[in-house]
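User: Hey, my collaborator sent me this sequence without any context and asked if I could get a structure. I don't really work with proteins. Can you help?
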Amino acid sequence: MDPIGLYEAVRGRSDFGELVEDLLDVALTTYNHHLIDPGEGERLADLYERGALHDADGFKFLCELAMRTEPEKFREVLRRRGLEV
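Assistant: No problem. I've predicted the 3D structure and written it out in C-alpha cell form, which is a compact way to encode the shape of the chain:
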C-alpha cells in the first residue's frame, strides 16, 4: 500500500496517533541513519514540531523514511495494527 493510500485508510482510526508515534520511533531509532540526509532530518524535526506528521504530506514523508531505513520494522508496525502490508 502506498503512503497516501495508507493515510486515507488510517487517518480516521482511533489509533492513528499511536501509528504515527510507532512510525516515528522506527525512523528515529534506525541504525540505518546514513540513509536519511541532513535535510530530511531537519524536515522531520520541523514536521514533528508543527504537529504536521498527522497531515497527509507529513505522514507520507514519515512512511517513506521508515520504509527506506527499516522496511521490516515498517511492515511489522502495520501488521501489529492489523493493516495490509
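In plain terms: The two ends are 6 Å apart (CA to CA). You can pass these C-alpha cells on to your collaborator as they are.
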